[in-house]
Amino acid sequence: MALRVISGNYRKMALKSLSKDTTRPTTDKIKEALFNMIGPYFNGEQVLDLYSGSGALAIEAVSRGARSAVCVEKYYPALKVIQENIDLTKEEHKFITLKQSAQKALFQLANDNQTFDLGFFRSAVCQTNYFTRHSTIIKFRFIKKWEPNSL
After folding, report:
1. What is the DSSP string of 7-39?
2. What does the buried/exposed string (b/e) look like for 105-139 if buried means 16 or more CB atoms within 10 Å of the residue's CB?
């Protein structure tokens, strides 16, 4: 599947992805709709991208003005693709990659007192503990401005 950055500093940059059998990249159409809803451009936000896959959402956010992004992915081939995509930005210092499960990463980030302005939590497979993982994010106050009605 061909991926690209929709807007911002990295606009039209082609991104790599794994086959559909191993990850499910967010299509350009969905990504564009998502970013139009949350705000087309950013101003220095910190982004958390769990289940990062190709890193496309984190890269799109940084392209549109987010200060930096943490990409969490436990599947090594996907993490390798994320790093290759980050390298294409020529701004590797704006990204951190963690090869861990989402749960382990959340605990590590909590221990490091990390907070985020924006979070992407899209798993390629349906998780039975979906609400547990997301309540962990809320519990540790990872998201700086939490709006319960925004779900």
Report:
1. SSTTTT-EE----TTT--PPPHHHHHHHHHHH-
2. bbeebbeeebebbbbbeeebeeeeeeeebbebbee
Query: In whole angstroms, what is the distance from residue 27 CA to residue 31 CA?
Result: 6
Q: 41-45, 73-77, 110-114, 138-142: which has the minimum mean pLDDT?
A: 138-142
pLDDT in tens, 6-16: 999 999 999 99
3-class state of residue 131 by DSSP: helix
* Cβ 53 vs Cβ 120: under 8 Å: no
Strand partners, 116: 143
Provide mean pLDDT across the span 67-91: 96
Contact 6, 33 (CB under 8 A): no
Q: Point out which residues pair with 3 in neighbouring strands.
A: 15
Contacts of 86 (CB under 8 A, 6+ apart): 55, 59, 71, 92, 95, 97
Token couple for 134: 């997301």
**Cα-based angle 103, 64, 120 (whole degrees, multiple of 5):** 20
User: Whole-prediction pTM value?
Assistant: 0.81
